[in-house]
Amino acid sequence: MLLERIYDEDLSQTSYLIACQASGEAIVVDPRRDIQVYLDLAAQHGLTITAVTETHLHADFLSGVRELAAATGATAFVPGTGGEDWQYGFEAERLGDHDTIELGNITITARHTPGHTPEHLSYLVTDGAFADEPGYILTGDFVFSGDLGRPDLLDEAVGMENTRFAGAKQLFASLQDVFLTLPDHVQVFPGHGAGSACGKAIGSLPSTTVGYERSFAWWAPHLKNDDEQGFIDELLDGQPDAHAYFARMKRQNQEGPALLGERVLPREVSAEELMRGLDSGDLALIDTRPLAEVHAGTVPGALNIPMLSKAAGHIAWAFDPDTDEAQLVVLARDAEHAAVYGDHFVRVGIDSLIGYVPSLEGLPSTVPSVISPAELEGLGDVPLVDVRTRNEFAGGTIPGAQQLSCGKVLFHQSELPEPDSGPIVTFCQSGLRNTVAASTLRRAGFDIIELDGSFAGWARWSAEQSRTAPAERTA
């Protein structure tokens, strides 16, 4: 048996390729939408992808099940559990509890493990050439290394009401009835690593075991003592903000993501064409330079996405394809470099990257407004917006600031002062997330001033003021 883990650092998301090397058949579980990595992996090992499936209706990325099945001729399987409201709207084989997929000597058994979502499946894997019992379980967003999938995401991101309590009860039951019935040696391969918003304390380890989680997970004492209410209380406490684009991912994944088919390289766009497109609103520019370079001057209305490694998450914060018909042009050294951005973008359903510019030469320039902590002190009664998560905000912020996470600013503009009411000062922890949020709000028409050094810079300045003030009073 071959089991390959494919990890996307951008979205902290994991997919898996499992194969019977005797028969040459492979299945991919929870694929992302830019599928070349799976095609290359199968070719490398001389495999044919004959099946593709997923654990649940994902909220944080757009599924590649349809895309990979169309490209390979593989059979698509999806959960058929969870009730009428959680059924998929595209052609695929439906899997129920205890249904199986056979790949040569390998048996994949679906187990219904609701809680994170009502339809969620986990997959037990039995290597029939070696054993007659499962040795592995792919848990999706059910069990992570050191944590569990959050049950409040449907409330937090999709707008449903009070599903978190039913979901938490389902998670408790899924642990009792499925996970903890497995032998300790069964290896656990989860759908996310640290950094994902699908849990509050996901570990960085790529895998764990049933026995390790049974002994050391935060939830283990609650299950041991049959303490359902204590489990629910601890599970729901302190869950992080869910990004607003998650609602679109849920909807598109249920309907069936649009097929990309054969993709072409982005073309080079001239400065003149870009300027015309920016003026008409038909084009939007993605400035990919670091924060310091952007602060020295950027194109008016450009969105700043400063890290390729986080381009999917950041573009989904900054651009909503449901309401914005602009086509995207990215600052990149060549077409191949631009295409990598395109790969990241399609993972979150943003398919409108058509071109690139190799430089900003010949384009209009503006210097974003930036203010130091000392200058902020004398600015007066200007609105302050903390774009960090609510957990960070609760740990301490600048006096008078309101919290609106960077993943929500584009979608919750009604929570901000009117765009024509004057400047707003924004900040995150160090400035990276804030440059994405600030450029997003500027493109939406707001007058944004970025706090230099963000909260960390303000905290250092504030501490320095506290140290020097007594000496000044003594003098």
Automatic annotation (TrEMBL):
PROSITE patterns: RHODANESE_3
Gene3D superfamilies: Rhodanese-like domain, Ribonuclease Z/Hydroxyacylglutathione hydrolase-like
InterPro entries reported for this sequence: Metallo-B-lactamas, Mito_Persulfide_Diox, POD-like_MBL-fold, Rhodanese-like_dom, Rhodanese-like_dom_sf, RibonucZ/Hydroxyglut_hydro
GO molecular function: hydrolase activity; metal ion binding; sulfur dioxygenase activity
Protein name, UniProt field: MBL fold metallo-hydrolase
Record bears the keyword Plastid: no
Swiss-Prot/TrEMBL GO biological process terms: glutathione metabolic process; hydrogen sulfide metabolic process
Domain Rhodanese: 279-307, 378-464
Keywords: Hydrolase, Metal-binding
Species the sequence originates in: Brachybacterium vulturis
